[in-house]
Design a protein that fits this description.
about 725 residues; SPRY/PRY_TRIM46; B30.2/SPRY; 7-stranded antiparallel beta sheet; zinc-finger
Length: about 725
């Protein structure tokens, strides 16, 4: 048993290095945990901050000081050595400390920096300074067990309220008063029938501490949770803060068990590999012996070389050594004897003169010869070109579009390494990143289908090669159309005016060229302003459902009307063209104003007029909401005046049309952002066709389906992309 106790005390003694404060180099007292996880005495930390220029922090009372009177102060507190001022100065001058708060005109800094000696850097304490650092109760308990085992096992705890020199040995301790009492003093300070009589009794001790850790910001709140993301303890109030929203928070009991299991496994691993540790210690000791021998051998060689050089120089001093011998040599008068004996002296003198003129130490005090020259290896490593992951791709907004499907196109930066394949992630807005679908493609474009209508999708892409995946590109937002896309072509069966209208081979583009007929009517235009409207319709007739299509109008067009109308009325209008200056017809009104029908019936036509870089939005009760949305979207009426008859706005890059056949409503959109421009009624009692009307020169082009287009062909319109989500709201 005595051998066991001796071994135990020896082990406890060797543990003392772990219990020292890095500032005062004494066993820690009332330690606090810095944000870097190192522990330091509270008083030492306070003095270091004061030395750094911060104001004196308000410290809590000593744990072993139950009252404020001097005779109740702990004896250990009175004899505890204070941190050495020169050591504090060294900490502050070593580069690990800064000097905030030195300016007299400025107040205390918002964030305190503590120079941590073990870290060798400044540690940010926060705005509240040491008040944010919690006590290390576990370390206090270890220190108490250590002191009881090593040095204080036979030291009696004296009553802290007896007046010296009649102080008695303490028999009880009070956890609430945080003091030790003898029997008489305990009865005196804990009268029967008072609240103090209910205080908790403990064994007498010199170090009282709180029962549990409490939150430094919310007094008396227990730390019951642990934030894995921030790696800090939380109380029930701190858990509700916005800063911890979405963080992984677990009960402190769970974190306790997890960390305890990890430390137990690590301890068992080290203890089970003691032979390996001892082998490594032996190798280190052997290496230390070899280093000592090498240093001693080098020291001897250098000392010997320097001694020889000193002896040689001393021989050059007058009346000593070589000089005295040379003077005696010059007294020789026999020529042959002199020449025979003086040649070696001449050589030695010449060498001495050269050593005087080119003096250098024969031994270098540095250890440069022990350094390994790795310049060649460093150059070889520098010249190596390691494979790097691709850089973040750049989305090509000129080719990316959202129509019947999503078409995403991108490119790699010029200084990026090639990519073997790409990973495209797309999700609906509101879904967290990583929760969407992934598509693996080998090219630099991707087509995504099976999408929901009238939804905003967020897309991003990253490249991959042998080095792994690179960074994601910036996110882009694509808004899908509000209804299924209608695919149709421009109908040429109604006998186009070949001298004024020209269709492309694909029948998706049309251009109106003012020809000879308008030139011949120029003389009439000065008096009655008669102009002819050229009509184009789609080759489909809508009889049910909701449909959406888009087109783009050339900004330089004179007047172009885009809309829908009854197929029968459109044929009638084509075969019996109306005078555009006549008051009997106004295409923007949507119906023949001279008709005999009731004013409550929906009009057979519904058009919007565009021309000269502007779009005209008629004003009506049905379109008020859409016009308001368009004004709120950021478009302003720059040139055209606002009036009850309507307003003009800049021409959008693309115009979208959505027809609801069952409701008899047609809505026009800015297809670039899918914001509604104008909404109105239309007669859907019979088949309805898309219609286009040209007045003067102009051109338009229908939007091509993503499913039918060539991936390498540049689309005719830009993508519906918003740089921020707030722009889509």
């Amino acid at each position: 048993i005595s051998d066991f106790r001796g071994t135990f005390r020896s082990n406890m003694k060797s543990m003392e290095q772990e219990l020292l404060c890095p500032v005062c180099k004494d066993i820690v007292k009332q330690p606090i945990v810095l944000p870097c996880l190192h522990s330091v005495c509270l008083m030492c930390a306070s003095e270091v901050l004061v030395q750094s220029g911060y104001p004196q922090p308000e410290l809590p009372p000593e744990p072993n000081s139950p009252a404020s009177t001097p005779n109740t102060r702990s004896p250990r507190q009175m004899r505890r050595p204070m941190p050495k001022s020169d050591r504090v100065d060294r900490l502050l001058r070593s580069g690990s400390g800064t000097y905030p708060g030195r300016r007299r005109k400025e107040g205390p800094p918002l964030v305190m920096l503590f120079p941590c000696a073990p870290c060798g850097r400044d540690v940010e304490l926060g705005e509240r300074g040491l008040a944010d650092c919690m006590r290390n109760l576990t370390l206090e308990r270890i220190v108490e067990r250590y002191r009881h085992t090593v040095s204080l096992g036979s030291v009696a705890v004296m009553c802290q309220f007896c007046k010296p020199p009649q102080a008695l040995e303490a028999t009880k301790g009070c956890a609430d008063c945080r003091a030790s009492f003898c029997n008489e003093c305990f009865k005196l300070y804990h009268p029967w029938g008072t609240p103090r009589a209910q205080h908790e009794h403990v064994q007498p001790t010199l170090n009282f501490r709180p029962k549990v850790l409490t939150c430094p910001e919310h007094d008396q709140e227990r730390l019951q949770f642990y934030c894995k993301s921030c790696q800090m303890l939380l109380c029930s109030l701190c858990k509700l803060r916005r800063i911890h929203t979405g963080h992984k928070i677990a009960p402190v009991t769970q974190a306790y068990q997890t960390l305890k299991d990890k430390i137990t496994k690590e301890l068992n691993f080290i203890l089970s590999n003691q032979e390996m540790v001892m082998t490594q210690i032996t190798q280190l000791e052997n290496r230390q012996t070899m280093l000592d021998q090498a240093l001693e051998s080098s020291r001897q060689r250098r000392t010997e070389a320097l001694a020889n050089q000193v002896a040689e120089k001393r021989s050059l001093v007058e009346h000593a050594g070589l000089m005295a011998f040379t003077q005696e040599l010059l007294k020789e008068n026999d020529p042959s004897s002199f020449v025979h004996a003086a040649r070696i002296t001449h050589n030695r003198l010449a060498q001495s003169i050269e050593s005087v003129q080119r003096f250098s130490l024969s031994a270098d005090p540095s250890f440069r010869h022990f350094q390994l020259d790795v310049s060649r290896e460093l150059k070889l490593l520098t010249d190596l070109n390691f494979i790097q992951a691709p850089l973040a791709p750049v989305i090509d907004t000129q080719r990316t579009l959202a129509y019947d499907q999503l078409f995403l196109c991108w490119r790699l930066p010029q200084d990026s390494t090639p990519a073997w394949h790409y990973s495209v992630e797309f999700r609906r807005r509101g879904v967290v990143p990583g929760g969407g679908r992934l598509e693996e493609v080998t090219g630099t474009c991707a087509v995504i289908d099976r999408l929901e209508m009238d939804s905003v999708y967020v897309l991003r892409v990253r490249g991959c090669n042998k080095a792994g995946f690179g960074e994601y590109s910036e996110e882009v937002y694509l808004h899908t159309p509000p209804a299924p896309v209608l695919n149709f072509y421009l109908d040429s069966r109604w006998g186009l005016h070949a001298d004024r209208l020209v269709l492309s081979k694909e029948q998706r583009c049309a251009r109106s060229v003012p020809g000879l007929s308008l030139l011949q009517a120029a003389d009439r235009a000065l008096t009655s302003c008669h102009l002819t409207a050229d009509l184009l319709v789609g080759d489909v007739a809508i009889t049910q459902g909701r449909h959406y299509w888009a087109c783009s109008v050339e900004p330089g067009s004179y007047l172009v009307k885009v809309g829908v109308g009854l197929e029968s009325k459109l044929q009638e209008w084509f075969h019996l063209p109306q005078d555009m200056a006549s008051p009997r017809y106004d295409p923007d009104s949507g119906h023949d104003s001279g008709a005999e029908d009731s004013s409550d019936s929906p009009p057979p036509f519904s058009f919007l007029t565009m021309g000269m870089g502007k779009i005209y939005l008629p004003s009506s009760a049905n379109s008020h909401h859409a016009n308001a949305n368009y004004r709120e979207s950021g478009f302003t009426n720059g040139n055209g005046p606002s009036s009850p008859a309507g307003v003009t706005y800049p021409l959008p890059p693309r115009l979208g049309v959505c027809l609801d056949f069952e409701k008899g409503r047609v809505t026009f959109y800015d297809a670039h952002s899918l914001r509604p421009l104008w909404e109105g009624p239309v007669d859907c009692s019979a088949p309805v066709c898309p219609a286009f009307c040209f007045i003067g020169g102009g051109a338009l082009q229908l939007q091509e389906l993503v499913a039918n287009r060539n991936a390498n062909q540049t689309p005719v319109r830009r993508v519906t992309i918003q740089s921020r989500v707030t722009k889509l709201n």
